[in-house]
Amino acid sequence: MFDRDTGGARIELRALTKHYPGQPAPAVDNVDLDIPAGELVVFVGPSGCGKTTTMKMINRLVEPTSGEIRIGGQDVLSLHPDELRRHIGYAIQQVGLFPHLTIGQNIGLVPKLLGWSAARTADRVEELLTLVNLEPSAFHDRYPSQLSGGQQQRVGVARALAADPPVMLMDEPFGATDPITREHLQNEFVKLQKQLRKTIIFVTHDFEEAIKLGDRIAVLRERSHIAQYDTPANILANPADDYVAGFIGQDATLKRLALLRVADVQCERQPMSADMPRITADASLREALDVMLAHGTDRCGSPSGVLTYDALCEAVGTEPASGTAPARKEPVGAGPAAALKEAVRR
Ligand SMILES: Nc1ncnc2c1ncn2[C@@H]1O[C@H](COP(=O)(O)OP(=O)(O)OP(=O)(O)O)[C@@H](O)[C@H]1O
């Protein structure tokens, strides 16, 4: 099956359509989409636009009315749905852990179904608990009700990864957590995916989350019609139309600053004074701008040279304000929104 390459498999949707019985219009209408192997693609769109239906057709929790789905070149509709689902990881907001099974048993469920030996399953469960930052000795034998919401969501992700599937479907998997836990889970997940390079479809309502996690974002309209499908940077720089621009909101420049690293920008080879603020190469341009504003200067030192305010503006395609530099000292805590209003949008 397509899971021979567990590092990720290409997903192709062709004219994919779902018309629920008794409904006046299809929930998903004639969708074409290619998802390259090893990429994480985020579906964003308003409630009811068909994100979940599109995703559930891929593991056949919903049967398509018409169209084609291929994973790793294989026709998904010709496979037995149960067999198919054992090779696609699935994580959802409600987590769906079995309350009467321990955490270890929940994670080991699919490997057991796949006929793995008890020893191999036990090793995998331990490996996965460690991977999602849950100490195996502390969590293996607990029941789901004995875990916090964020911990349960980590178990949900571990369970989806259990059989090392090439494809993962994730429907708002961090949705039910508070903002701090959510950010933590997102950061961990970004690190994890860098390592695993699964092919992932990730549904969210949160555009910030889409920018942070996605190699590409599919912005969907009603009936899953694709308004734009591109990298976060390209969508932020060139939204296809007002609909997409509406999703991005007011802070496109800020979001682009957050996406770019100091290392991505041409720095000038010039002497650095002792009082020039310093920034690391992997800091974002948003952080660099904050540092400049906090120090009332238009430049800061980085490992590859001096990063100037003008270079920063050029990197996000914004004209530097005339007379240039962020002149007033502002506390770092004033945050980038205030900074950009002050420095970029004058
Ligand atoms: N089982 C069903 N029977 C009939 N209609 C359905 C069924 N499931 C979903 N729908 C309808 O299909 C459309 C798309 O629903 P879907 O859940 O895919 O949207 P969504 O974009 O995931 O929404 P949300 O963001 O609110 O979860 C909606 O109009 C919904 O009411």
UniProtKB/TrEMBL annotation:
Signal peptide: none annotated. It comes from Nonomuraea guangzhouensis. Residues 11-248 form the ABC transporter domain. Belongs to the ABC transporter superfamily. Keywords: ATP-binding, Nucleotide-binding, Repeat, Transport. Residues 320-346 are annotated as: Disordered. GO terms for molecular function: ATP binding. The keyword Nucleus does not apply. InterPro entries: AAA+_ATPase, ABC_transporter-like_ATP-bd, ABC_transporter-like_CS, Gly-betaine_transp_ATP-bd. SMART domains: AAA. Pfam families: ABC_tran (PF00005). This is ABC transporter ATP-binding protein.
